[in-house]
Amino acid sequence: MADFYEIDFLDVETQKSGDAITIRYEVNGEQFIHVVDGGFQATGEKIVAHIKKYYGENAYIDHVVVTHPDGDHAGGLRTVLEELNVGQLWMLMPWDYANEIIDQFQRFTSVEGLKTRLREIYPNLHALEEIANRKNITIREPFQGASIGSFTVMAPTKTRYLDLIVNSEKTPETVTESEKSAMDTLASLFEGAKKAVINIIKAAWGDEVFSSNETSAENEMSVIQFATLSNKKILLTGDAGRTALSEAADFAPVIGLTLPGIDNFQVPHHGSRRNVSTEILDRWLGPRHEAQSDSSTFIAAISSAKADEAHPRNAVVRAMYHRGGRVYATEGNSLCVYGGAHISRGWGASTPMTYPDGQEE
Measured between alpha carbons, how far is 239 from 218 in angstroms, rounded to an integer? Predict the structure, then answer.
């Protein structure tokens, strides 16, 4: 069989959106299975059933990647590790670096005390660590430059990741960040109050308005992965924000990747306005076209629940079309993006999202 790839964006259908992605690909006659995130804890059984049905009852999972610690990404991987045969778990655990950051925390003088607290703050990661250790699954660090099968980690760097741990609102107060944390909390509350009054206004082709607010530190921790499979360039972003996407783009020349030019693009954070900008999308996907075309140059995939009214944002969907994309969202149905010798499953053709003629103020 010729080389191929299948990227399955499984629907995580709750009141909030989540990410659960399974990948099967073949290179030089050898097949690999790669799982990226697992949605919520309840999503785990769906992932296991999907893999057994479409990849094989006794499928071996070469790599499982936890992009970041949020429960809508890491939760369901507990079941994956428990019920499937997994080779390597790629996951960043904040407590592994406690000795490198302890001097920035005023509440702790003991490295072990800080490690304990970080495990409490990130229970999803701690649970996965315990399962992996019990099952002798190797845990590896997905920092920039690491190779995960055919995928290369584009971000984060270790330096930026450590800064994010220290600056996260979830971590214990740091010597210099206590006042900032209080201000950020107030800002977060204010932003939450504004959500109910966001208006959709009619906008001309090419107009783009994104949020001036940044995404969370946890989202910025997201592992960004790139691969070329069956001559298609694939970028998986997790919930990466603008800083992470910029860091990844800066790294592209190191691996010989010329930008713009992505064929399969995972829209970060379920299509949030806080994660992208015109400048960043120009770097990855190219500049805006003068008018909408009947043809497309790339596929944009969004993991968003039908019940989640906040995702995806119109502004983000519009931005994909502005650059020649064809946009698909899970919205209650799993989505398969494939290349090469695709194996038919009897699934119906997905319908792309329509171009919104309005966007958020």
Answer: 8
